C-alpha cells in the first residue's frame, strides 16, 4: 500500500520523532543510548522503537480518517521510546487485544 510507504518515510524524518529520540538520549562510550520509557533501561538505536502511546491500529478504509488524525495531531507527548525486545512486543500485544475489544 503506497500510503503506508509514504507514512513510513515521513515518520522516519519527522521532527516530532527526532524530538522524542533526543529527549531520551545519553552519550555513552560505545555511542548514543536511548532510554526505554517502560523498563527505564538504556539501549542502542538498533534496539529501540519509537511507538505511539495510544494504539492506532491498522489502516483500512473504515478507520482511515482516525488513522490520519493520529498523524495530524501528533506531538512529542504522543510518542515514546520502547525497547524492541521486551517492552515494545508486550505493548503491541496489549494494543492488539484493546483494538479487538473495541470492535
Describe this structure in words.
By secondary structure, the chain is an alpha+beta fold. It is 48% helix and 20% strand. The protein has helices spanning 2-13, 15-23, 64-72, 84-102; strands at residues 25-28, 31-35, 42-43, 48-52, 79-83. The strands form 2 sheets. It has a 3-stranded antiparallel beta sheet. β1 (25-28) and β2 (31-35) form a beta hairpin. It starts with a helix and ends with a helix.
Summarize the helices and strands and which ones pair or pack.
Elements: H1 2-13, H2 15-23, E1 25-28, E2 31-35, E3 42-43, E4 48-52, H3 64-72, E5 79-83, H4 84-102
Antiparallel strand pairs: 1-2, 2-3, 4-5
Number of domains: 1
Helix content: 40-55%
Give unreliable regions as ranges.
6-10
Overall mean pLDDT stands at 78
Strand-pairing-aware structural class: alpha+beta
**Largest sheet: spatial strand order:** 1-2-3
Query: What would the principal axes of the Cα set say about the shape?
Result: flat
Q: What is the tally of beta strands? A: 5
How far apart the termini lie comes to 23 Å
Key phrases:
single chain; 103 residues; alpha+beta; three-stranded antiparallel β-sheet; two-stranded antiparallel ribbon; 5 strands
